[in-house]
Amino acid sequence: MGIVRKQSIASSIYIYIGFLIGAFNLLFLFKNYFTPEEFGLTRLLIDVSTLLAMLCTFGSCPATIKFFPFYKAYLPPKKNDLPFLTIVACLVGCILFLCITPIFKESIIRKFGKNSALFVQYFHLIYPLTISYAFWYLLESIEWSLQNTVLTNFLKEIGFRLITTILIGIYILQWINFNQFIVLFSFMYIIPVLILIIHLYKLNYFNFSLQVSKVTKRLRKHILTFSIFIFSGQVLGLIARTSDTIIISSQSAGGLSDTAVFTIATFLIALMEVPMRGMMGIAASIIAYAWKDKDMLKIEEMYKKTALNLTIIGLAIGCVIFLNAHNLVSYFGPVYGSLPTIILILGVSKLVDLGTGLNSQILLSSKYWKIDFGTNMFFVFLSIPLNYYLINRFGLVGSAYANFIATFIYNLVRLLFILKLFKMQPYSFKNVQTIAIGVIAFFISYSIPIFPNFFIDAVIRSLIFVSIYGVAIIAFKTSEDMNELFFSTLKKMGIRNNK
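Above: the chain sequence. Below: its structure as tokens.
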């Protein structure tokens, strides 16, 4: 776990800094200088473009992560044709996107015209957003395959949000109007993409062959089959994960305003998955190499440790957020009165997802990778109808319930597959112990009387919870990694010696 922990910590620091910048953007700048409809428009453009960008990659991203170890092992860099093949695949996908999308424009106008007319007005901005993000996807997967995750996480978590902050600042100073702001917003991914291109160029990654290599000839059927299935599965999974925002925008009575409310809730809950995002890139690469070397003990060790560590951190963050849900309503106003319920349901859903560890990476890198496609398809067929039905019936809260139901069943299915195929499961008494500590610490903190000032209330309530929870986790030695990290930090600070 050394390299995983090292790069995960560095990446997580960047991600948390990015979340602070994002929180400033969402909770202050967008709230005070944009209407809910304008804010909702930025979220919907991002979600739609993210989905379309995945389609444009044509499966080149999972193929890069899965098969790069084989190309690296059996070919010198100058004869490696994998970079050329993946770049061509992405280019073809973007060209097809430009040709096909206009066909569906009238249908999109009918769906969103009533409740989200602003999206129809700026629909054309999905083109620069989608194409630039498609190449971001590809370049990010290349960096992951090279086990370089810190730079991509820095750009993704800090770079994107910092660019947004700058654009909002220019808008606030009235140097540009909203129309110019949203146009510049649609081009914000270009700078990070150029930075990755320069970085990979310096690593001589683009010093590749245009001729078909012996590895490609031998693995072409496997690569093609893998790419089609995994690409389809990832697209389906992304559809399920972005369908709530899209369905809310088109079906909810509040349209883009309801999208803004739901975005605040999902942004806060996304804090829980920062550790997973920090370790995902490096862990995916290490698991791929472990499968290549048939090192099942390494895979099982990562499965158990990541599930435990993600639960510990995710539970802590989730409890702090929910403890302060009433303060968020006080800050945003009565329009956001549904936030506590949505946060609670989405928080439990995210904890279920984190608690199953890196099950997706394990399945994706194994010979049973088709299961990843099957379970993603199952998730979509479960999630979209649930979202559509429950949003129409219960509004925003319905989307949260749909998310929880679909996530729970989806992760349970994956957990059972891994148990049956590899005789692995990620749980032990330590996982139960973590939940028990979290529940006790939560109810102690929750029982504190509410202070009139919501800022003081948030600080005191959070500090009490973190103190009780953190001390208990360390004292009961719940996680070897957490204790090692804690005491090594004390040692570096000069608080604890080597004894």
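The chain has one domain: 2-492.
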